[in-house]
Amino acid sequence: MKSVKEIKAFVSERSIDEYDQIIACLSSDARKAIQTLCLQLARQKSAHEQECERMQRMYHYENELKSKGIKLIAGMDEVGRGPLIGPVVAAAVILDDKTDYFGINDSKKLTAEKRNYFYDKIIQNAVGYGIGMASHDEIDEINILNATKLAMIRAVKALNNSVSPDFLLIDALKIDDIPIRQLNIVKGDEKSASIAAASIVAKVTRDDLMQTIHEAYPNYGFNTNMGYGTDLHYEGLRKYGMTPFHRKSFLKNFK
Prior knowledge:
This protein has ten helices and five strands. With 255 residues, the chain is an alpha/beta fold. A five-stranded mixed sheet has the order 3-2-1-4-5. Strand 1 and strand 2 form a beta hairpin. Helix 2 (19-26) packs antiparallel against helix 3 (32-58), helix 5 (112-125) packs across helix 8 (193-216) and helix 6 crosses helix 7. The radius of gyration is 23 Å and the shape is flat. It catalyses: Endonucleolytic cleavage to 5'-phosphomonoester. It comes from Fusibacter ferrireducens.
């Protein structure tokens, strides 16, 4: 009989596809540590199967469109509609079919480490990606909704590798000024891998920008609140006033 340590070392080298067989072999081992290990493996296998099912759903819209002969599908999303400072940032991403994006999700549901992991993978492997912004001044001039649409238009125009999408999957919004077939999906960043990818690219881009602004104006906590109206942010506004990057239209009633 192998020791618990030896069994755990063996299991650590096995793939999740082998877990059912391992659990069956270990089920007769009465040692508490081994039974606990079996329970852990069963939970991990179940969680993996649920994630596989979620990933199938994440490609539902893309697969349906591709079955109709539509090849270049761009997911679109934006970040930064709610903050008091900085631009709204949009991204358009056409995912490739060869890269494994297993685990991709709405950027808000990922850790910063996971977002950066997927960001690098998307930038390196996507068929194309584009980033568009609308500044704080443009937000003040044309309002946040119109500025968001402007950023999205710019993201499509900025798609690299000279690619032009055949279809757009857009999180919630409809963009009338883009002459490309499109589908707006409520909570699309939770339902489409392409939109989730766009949300990741947009968020990492904007978070990096807010880090840069934080270095110039360190008294507002932009490195942690990303420009949202936290207590620290409002405290900074009371003490130091608005920076050149604040959205004046968002702070009309601030005292």
